[in-house]
Amino acid sequence: MAARVATAAGGDGAHPLLDDLMPWSVRPLRTGRPWVTGPDASALRARWDALARAEGAEQTRLFRPSRTRTPLAPAAALPGRTTGTSGFARDPGPCPEPVRVLHGPFDEQWLIPDQRLLDAARPELWRVADGHQLFAVEHGVIPGDSGPALSVTALLPDGHSPAGRPGRIRPLHRRPGGREPNLAPGLLRLLRARYGDVEGARAVLAWALAAARPSPAGAVVPLPADGALWSHGVELGEELLRLHLRGARGGERPRLPGGRRPYVRAAIPPRPAVLAYDAGEETLSLGEGRISPVPAGAWEFRVGGVRMLELWFERRTVWAGGEGLAALVPRAWTREWTSELLELITVLALLDGLRPRREALWAHLDRAAPLTRQDLRTAGVLPVPAAARRPASVLDHREEGPEGQFALL
Fold it and tell me: Facing residues of 179 across strands?
């Protein structure tokens, strides 16, 4: 089913891509050094302090210089941040409060928000990241992968891909405050003419989350000619969106029915080394620790061919072997990680529970008359103007550039 849509996108291009509908996109963040992100905020503060105390060659070794970032290189403060702008070696200043980010699909971690430490921080994303913004992240294409083509988050995403080529990051709004939807000019007008009442940019995002399928050209988003099918897909997409957002933007935290909620049945040890799953008992084992019930769909949930629960666990159990600052990690499993794991199991189980409805939607789309790219061209929606693919001018105040000078943007 997914193969037919992907072939169309790569061949005659009958179906629009997400790139046609949400034209402004940003490449993934490139940190340049692994120690600036991690699952524990206190560890990031300890790494900062260790780097600030070091001097000379030792500081350079710990910093892990790249072509664009060294301890002596100045850099502008990230939008909305008040970090130093001269070289870190000259004036590190206090550690900025780590910010929550989405590190690849479904893994919420922490990042030190100082551009002096980041090779490519993508400040255009930071300028529009506020309490109104949502970000769609495309996943890399892996042959035979049946996982979702997109993730959506209210956090700043780094765009990391667990396998394959990282996808693009697409903000829902081009300006702060939820202003100016990141949609092809004229798209909403066309959809309203075809389907009747279309709520706005969020409805398009919900539809994409339900209908998108991966292809080598990017996420394919078939559009139906039938308004009833559109409404059905948007309703499903809103349910998916609620799960992806995990209670952000005024929603409720995802919860499984009472008898199916996962609980810790045996305490997780300080340093669990092995993760295992017993399908018959629906039990997830972390060393001697036990969590159940864990539906098989949560355990098998994959993106880019990688099990999300296994990847999440691996990123939190490197107790030794890290190099330099990356070796500064929590000494033991944290209570916060247990809470995060229970929530992740819940989210993945609920998403897997919606899989049959998504597959039914795709089957309907394969049989239904489409709203094609040619229809979008005829309506003047395509080709997208070049300006819609560039960041909007969002500056209502001056930003501090390198060495304390004001940035000229």
Answer: 175
**Which two three-digit tokens encode residue 71?**
């301890």
| CA 179 to chain CA mean position, Å | 21
Query: Is it the case that residue 166 has pLDDT exceeding 80?
Result: no
Cβ contact 138:218 at 8 Å = yes
Q: Is residue 291 part of a domain?
A: yes
Classify each residue of 239-249 as buried b or exposed e, where b means 16 or more C-beta atoms within 10 Å of its C-beta.
Answer: bbbbbbbbeee
Range of the domain at 337: 258-350
Q: Among 37, 28, 15, which Cα is nearest to 101's?
A: 37
Whether 299 maps to a domain, the answer reads: yes
Domain count, the chain: 1
Residue 262 lies in a domain: yes
Instruction: For residue 340, give Cα distances in angstroms to 126, 291, 395.
Output: 25, 13, 36
Query: pLDDT, tens digit, for every residue of 211-252?
Result: 999 988 899 999 999 999 999 999 999 999 999 999 999 888
Inside any domain, residue 8: no
